Amino acid sequence: MTAHPTQIESNASAIPVSYATALSTSGLVAPQHKPWLNFCDTTRLKDFQLGHTLPQVWAWLADYYERANSNNFPTPQEIYSRKATRIALADTLIVPPPKLSTITFTQPSKKEAQQQQERSQLSIAHLVKTLREAGLLPKPWDILLQPAPLLRRFSDRESLLLAMAGLGQEAHAMAHDSTLIPGLVRAGVILPAQTMELQHAMAVEQLLDPVDILPYLTSRTQLFSRDTYPDALGAYLQGIYKDVAHMLPNMAFTDFHYKVEVPPEFKPCRGGCPDNRDIIVTLRVQGKRYKQRCQLWEDTGLNGQRLYSVNQDEFYEIFNQVLADRASLTAW
Q1: In angstroms, what is the C-alpha Rg of the chain?
Q2: Which of 5, 62, 64, 99 has the fewest other C-beta atoms within 10 Å?
């Protein structure tokens, strides 16, 4: 089966591809839920639509598995009835906000957590295999999902599918961004030969993340991989922050310190909340002290050992603080 179903051509326009048949025959949707699948393929309600692109299908599957876990499959009549009721009562019914309550988190035993993780990994591996066989996993995605350590970073099928959907939407957006490449050319960070290669890769949606653009550029760039740093949290943190500092002018720092802290909203958690931790980083640049809170993620190394890594979208913000201070001084 091909990775992308062929669109049916008409005199007016191409009819959007339906993935309902592939989902129905692949086993990804349980037999008793096929009527639900047929409804989602034909409904005009956006919250339930299957969609006509693979990222939309992956997001729909994530929602489907969440519904399956909670047995939440209302009939079309119930859906439309609820919608009509909400519209009729919108102007007359005032719903008070829910009362806030303290939530107590419990942590499973080490054995239970390991068994749960093993079940999740088997489920994720089976999902990837089924997507591939059903033609719902194009080659770039198949290659991306090959490394076992990558798959171990997802706790369940839903999180993997949502991550794929997000990257797919990013790839689609980059493919239709008419300003990106001209901007890179004006900045002088890409050569003509690389420009052509980048245009092709973007057009066929092979770039699944903006970071995939970096190899095409001539400017000083660096990719940060957790596996290239020491396992110990302190040595890893100091190493990655130093590497970022070396990329920026006059950014050498001293007095680097960090501490691990449970976020305030998770304070009631029993057992220390190992999956919900932040780091507080402090350092000095040119005599001024800077401080930043950053989310700490639990990861899995190449050998299956537990590793912690910083949130990739947050850890560099402390350097943005320094740059912002310098811009303020320059403006003054």
Answers
A1: 24
A2: 99
